[in-house]
Structure formats: structure tokens, C-alpha cells
Design a protein that fits this description.
- The structure is a single chain.
- By secondary structure, this protein is of the alpha+beta class.
- Helices cover about 55% and strands about 10% of the residues.
- It has ten helices and five strands; from the N terminus they run αααααααβαββαβαβ.
- The protein has a five-stranded mixed beta sheet, sandwiched between helices.
- The termini are far apart.
- The N terminus is likely disordered.
Length: about 290
């Protein structure tokens, strides 16, 4: 596939119209223009345009043939998610989330509108707007980038907490996948009641959640993380089948001026995973 610089009314490479312009130009012009500007900045002799597209959107390196296959899946996922949520989701957020889910071999949690027994977990209905935002694909990266730009502009502190459920596979085996999903919903409820209204909770992946805390320094975030850890431990002891409740491990990090969202998240994940090797049910920091 030969690539040439984009000009008015001129397609830059085979597949551009079918896989980029047609699905995006009218339905999501912001994403379309993002991709268009991306190709304007790339070399004129680019041989693997879809490989370059995936790489620039999420850092994933793929052969061009595989990149095209994934790109088709990304477009389908974008369409499905937007139909469910009733709003447009940016192409970068959907791309990042696609590869996160593909790596973890898991699907998004479905939130059941039913309720279990009186002693079991209370479930939030799927129409709850706050819950839907938490589970929106790519929302964590979208909001982190937004808040990092805001923090840099106004010179405010910005801290995040990455939360991981300890031994979630055991919870899943004990309660069945449906019950485990409801435990995660209970966890979201507990965290929501612990954080401020300006704080942002998002699902990072699987049983991990990212909390974005505007105008919050590292010490304040560590104190909050400890409160969350204690609240989750105490309030999940009522869950039928889990008499000891669940525990969580958390990592805390404060963004610095030169951080990018991807690099910052990688460091946060590393701190969390290194910490879990030492001791779970604890708070670690960058």
C-alpha cells in the first residue's frame, strides 16, 4: 500500500475511504480529523498505514494485515458501544480499550438489574448514569488526559489511585461470574461514597479501577487510599459466601509536569504489581 500526503478530495491509500472516511467522517468528525492530521505528519513513503495508525493511537506494534483486522474490530466495537451509551466515544479511547480487553481476554462487566437475597450484594441498575461512565471503554484514559492538561494549565496537584481486587479469581469461583460482577458493583458503590464529587472513578481493566483526584497531593491521596481499603474490607464482610469480605491493593501516584498519561499509568501499574508481590491488602506509592 503506497501512501502519499493527504490532499483535498484525494485518498491517501487503499482502504482509507472504506475503513476510515466512510465510518468516521460524518458520524465522528473529531476522530476522523485526528486520524487525518496524524497521516499528514507521517512520512510520504509510509508502506504500512494501518500499522502506523494503530501504533500512533495506542502504541501497539502490528503487521499491517493484523492491524487491518484489529481496526475492523475496533470500528465494530465503537459502533456497538455508542449505540448502548447513546453518545460518541473517541477513536483513541476505543482503540486503547480494545487492546486492553484483548490482552486480558475478558469482556466488559454486565451489571444485572436483579437483586440477590437480603444478605447479599445490592446491585445498581444499568441505567445509572454514574455507573455507566465508570464502565465506559477508554473513559479512564480520556479523563486522565483531560485532568493532566487541566492540572498543568492551572498548576494544580493531580494524583491517581489504582485499585486492584485481591484474589479476584477466588471470588469469581466462590460466587460464580454473575455474583463476582455484583461484588465489583458493590465495590464501586463503596468507593463512590468515600471519594468527593469532583473525583473521577473509572474502570481500568477487569477488577482494577482508576481514581483520578484533581487538586489532591500525594499525602492526601494516600490517606484516601487507606480509607477506601478499610471501607471495602469492612463493608464486604456482609456478602453471602465471603464471610471475610474482600481486600484490595492500591497504588498512589502524583503526576509531574513532564508525565504523559501512558507513561504515568505504566509506572502506577508497576508499583501496584511490585507491591502485590510483597504484601496484598496494602497501599503503595510512586
Amino acid at each position: 500500500m503506497q501512501f502519499k500526503r493527504i490532499k483535498m478530495n484525494e485518498l491517501p491509500f487503499d482502504g482509507f475511504k472504506e475503513l476510515i472516511e466512510t465510518p468516521l467522517a460524518s458520524k465522528d468528525p473529531k476522530s476522523f480529523n485526528t486520524i487525518r492530521r496524524l497521516f499528514l505528519d507521517l512520512p510520504s513513503d509510509l508502506q504500512n498505514p494501518f500499522s502506523a495508525l494503530i501504533s500512533n493511537l495506542c502504541g501497539k506494534e502490528l503487521p499491517n494485515h493484523d492491524a487491518i483486522t484489529h481496526w475492523r474490530q475496533i470500528l465494530e466495537n465503537k459502533k456497538t458501544i455508542e449505540q448502548k451509551l447513546g453518545r460518541t466515544i473517541g477513536i483513541q479511547a476505543v482503540t486503547v480499550d480494545h487492546f486492553e480487553q484483548n490482552a486480558n481476554n475478558e469482556t466488559f462487566l454486565s451489571i444485572s438489574p436483579q437483586r440477590q437475597s437480603q444478605n447479599s450484594v445490592s446491585v445498581i441498575k444499568s441505567g445509572d448514569e454514574w455507573i455507566e461512565r465508570v464502565y465506559t471503554p477508554g473513559y479512564h484514559l480520556e479523563k486522565l488526559k483531560e485532568e493532566m492538561l487541566r492540572a498543568k494549565r492551572y498548576k494544580h496537584a493531580l494524583t491517581t489511585i489504582l485499585l486492584d481486587v485481591d484474589e479476584f479469581r477466588r471470588v469469581n469461583d466462590t460466587l460464580t461470574p454473575k455474583g463476582a460482577d455484583q461484588v465489583l458493583t458493590l465495590l464501586v458503590n463503596i468507593v463512590k461514597k468515600t471519594i468527593r464529587t469532583v473525583d473521577i472513578m473509572t474502570r481500568y481493566s477487569g477488577d482494577r479501577f482508576l481514581l483520578i483526584l484533581p487538586n489532591t497531593n500525594k499525602r492526601e491521596a494516600q490517606e484516601l487510599a487507606e480509607r477506601i481499603r478499610e471501607n471495602v474490607s469492612q463493608r464486604t464482610k456482609r456478602v453471602e459466601g465471603l464471610p471475610n469480605g474482600i481486600t484490595i491493593t492500591l497504588s498512589v501516584g502524583q503526576c509531574v509536569k513532564d508525565d504523559t498519561s501512558i507513561d504515568f499509568l505504566k509506572r502506577l501499574v508497576t508499583v501496584l504489581e511490585d507491591g502485590k508481590k510483597k504484601k496484598r491488602n496494602a497501599v503503595y506509592s510512586l
